[in-house]
């Protein structure tokens, strides 16, 4: 009779504690396929994760949403575009918005995600009421997204709008007026006039406008 491997004797909780240290999603997928116990261990490991970063990974809507859905304790989500060409779309953001952890997220980065529009951003942000840090730089969002952020994220502390050339002075005024805890805003590369920044500082004198 074949002797049981030492690692197979580990309790499922301890196995999950080890697997949570694996950062490669490819490795986690392979671990999940070892056996039923390891598959459960991977699920428990994801449930304990506080941060998920897909930067540098070639992800699609379904695979990204599936991982986020299992990360019940998630606080920080980074799905920035990478050189590998992340394929997240509005449909993916909608699926992510349905995950239970979204309402507890404090940080979201959608940097450089050119495949998303206001439709997907609004669906995600409307569910992220605990958000404190948001990076939507390099996207094609408009004032519609800024309005949703202003209405849904009262705890927002910082936002990156780097090169968001479709946002206007009106959208920024609404954002700063409603997000009273906002301390920092990056508007490099936007097309708003300089006078707009004076108006923002009139609303919130302590606001740090970058650059």
Can you describe what's shown?
It is a single chain. The chain has a seven-stranded parallel beta sheet, with no helix packed on it. The chain is α/β, with parallel strands linked by helices and 211 residues long. The mean pLDDT is 88. It has nine helices and seven strands. Helix content is 40%, strand content 10%. The chain starts with 11 loop residues before the first helix and ends with a strand. Residues 95-178 form the F-box/LRR-repeat protein 15-like leucin rich repeat domain. This is F-box/RNI-like superfamily protein isoform 1. Residues 7-42 form the F-box domain. It comes from Theobroma cacao.
User: Would you give the CATH topology of the largest domain?
Assistant: Leucine-rich repeat, LRR (right-handed beta-alpha superhelix)
User: How many distinct folded domains?
Assistant: 2
Overall helicity: 40-55%
Please identify the oligomeric state.
single chain
Count helical runs: 9
Detail the poorly predicted runs: none
Which strand order spans the largest sheet, edge to edge or round the barrel? 1-2-3-4-5-6-7
Largest sheet: 7 strands, parallel
CA-CA gap between termini: 69 Å
Shape: elongated
- CATH homologous superfamily designation of the largest domain: Ribonuclease Inhibitor
What average pLDDT do the residues reach? 88
User: Structural class, from helix and strand content?
Assistant: alpha/beta
What string, H for helix and E for strand, traces the elements in order? HHHEHEHEHEHEHEHE
- The CATH architecture of the largest domain can be given as Alpha-Beta Horseshoe
Radius of gyration, rounded?
A: 20 Å
Task: Report the portion of residues in β strands.
Answer: 5-15%
């Amino acid at each position: 009779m074949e002797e049981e491997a030492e690692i197979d004797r580990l309790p499922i909780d301890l196995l999950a504690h080890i697997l949570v240290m694996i950062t490669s999603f490819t490795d986690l997928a392979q671990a999940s396929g070892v056996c039923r116990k390891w598959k459960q261990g991977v699920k428990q490991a994801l449930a304990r994760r506080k941060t998920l970063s897909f930067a540098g990974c070639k992800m699609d809507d379904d695979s990204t949403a599936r991982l986020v859905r299992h990360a019940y304790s998630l606080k920080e989500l980074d799905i920035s575009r990478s050189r590998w060409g992340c394929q997240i779309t509005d449909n993916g953001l909608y699926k992510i918005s349905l995950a239970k952890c979204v309402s507890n997220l404090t940080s979201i980065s959608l940097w450089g995600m050119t495949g998303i529009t206001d439709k997907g951003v609004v669906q995600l942000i409307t569910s992220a009421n605990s958000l404190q840090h948001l990076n939507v730089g390099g996207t094609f969002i408009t004032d519609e997204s800024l309005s949703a952020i202003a209405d849904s994220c009262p705890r927002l502390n910082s936002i990156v709008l780097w090169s968001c050339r479709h946002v206007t002075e009106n959208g920024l005024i609404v954002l700063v007026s409603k997000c009273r805890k906002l301390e920092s805003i990056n508007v490099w590369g936007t097309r708003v006039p300089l006078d707009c920044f004076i108006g923002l500082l009139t609303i919130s004198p302590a606001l740090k406008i970058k650059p």
